[in-house]
Amino acid sequence: MRRRWRALLGGVMLLTGCLLTACSSEAPPAVTKPLVEEPDDQGQTITINPPVAPKLGDPNAKYIVQTRIADFHLINSNEGFVWGVTRNEFRLYYTHDGGETWNNISPSENVQFQDKLEYGKDISFSDSHHGWVVRQNLEKTATVILRTADGGQSWDVSALPNGEHVSSIQYVNPMTGWIMAYVDLNEQDQQKLLYHTTNGGATWKKVAQSSSMVSQESGSGLPDQGSLAGMGFSYSNQGFVAINLDSSVKLYRSSNQGKIWTPVANRMQGCPQAKAEAQQSLKGNSSSYWVPVLCYGDHGTQYNGLFTADAGTRWNSMSLGLSSSSKSILPGRTFLNEKEGWIINQNGMSRTLDGGKTWTSLSGNRVLASKLKDYPRAVKLRFASSSVGWLLLERLDDKKSLLLKTTDGGVNWRIL
């Protein structure tokens, strides 16, 4: 497997040096020592395709590896990615056959990571060939962006100009993408900065920032108050952001590539304390999204959703008809479109075909029920079609995870 390790490592060193030493003649050493040492994660065993001609000692020559899968992304029913961070090394794998076998497309181990990476925050793919990985701003290091245009065979590097923390990343095509970054002002508020690229992430231009509290620049309409929950853009450069502010969800939209933002009413009723989670895209339309919302009240937590079909211009608020008596119980929820969705909790899997008004319990084989006892936390649930879906479970006591797949709409599941 061909990778430009020397170019990548040299790029990271140069970018880090330029940002920290104003490109002085004495280059700083590369960041190779991990900030956090973790034990080996004994996660799921997956079959790795070896390189065409493996060399003696090549770690990619291994046919079987064990890794704790932290997140995944489904492109379609057959193609997808899984990844994790072990001993501060980012490990990324791609499948073209529905998870039967995997290709190791990890970037260089010299670019080290401290935290696990989340899709939409640290990782974005526009297709199976074009992907981007954010190495967040660590102490005395830059916010580095790794990018590939050949499915992970090689990786290039760039960086944000000022090294802010990234809260959301999205690419709508191989050339066009957005990054929302932030600087913490206090425990509740963040200065928000939006960057845009039109050359696949090689360079980034700041197009908007919130400015009412910390800058004399003219504002973009985004508030410093509150924290960003999610961001989404369509192919036509319309976009939205969801912000958690004062126990409520505030929505903003832009129709000019993120330069100016205006508030949008969400008409969410009967929710005294609301908190939005990261948005999920809906299949079939680049302008369609939904934002999961937790509604806290005296009698527990209700699970709602905000749905848009026009990249945030108009929103429909829906109660999913689900509730729990504890704030700590967060069931996995996903929608394929505005009507068809799934949810998983301690009782198993349920499906809706009417936007959450009614739910039908899916009772199939015993694999899911037995695995939920061993892996009680649902990390992520996504469907690529009405039939094919993936579910990631984990248990925190020994850092183990398990990835399952269904091909009959969630009735039966098997371990990948």
Structural write-up:
β17 (248-254) and β18 (262-264) form a beta hairpin. Mean pLDDT is 82; it is low at 1-41 and 53-57. The chain has a domain at 1-52 and 59-218. Strands 2-1-6-5-4-3 form a 6-stranded mixed β-sheet, with no helix packed on it. The two termini are 24 Å apart. The longest helix is centred in the first third of the chain and has 17 residues, at 5-21. 6% of the residues lie in helices and 42% in strands. The protein is mostly beta strands and 416 residues long. The chain has helices spanning 5-21, 367-374; strands at residues 44-49, 64-67, 71-74, 80-86, 89-95, 102-104, 123-125, 131-135, 144-148, 156-159, 165-171, 177-184, 190-197, 205-209, 227-233, 239-245, 248-254, 262-264, 273-276, 280-281, 289-297, 300-308, 316-324, 332-335, 341-345, 348-352, 360-362, 377-383, 389-395, 400-406, 414-415.
Summarize the structure.
It comes from Paenibacillus farraposensis. By secondary structure, the protein is mainly beta. Helix content is 6%, strand content 42%.
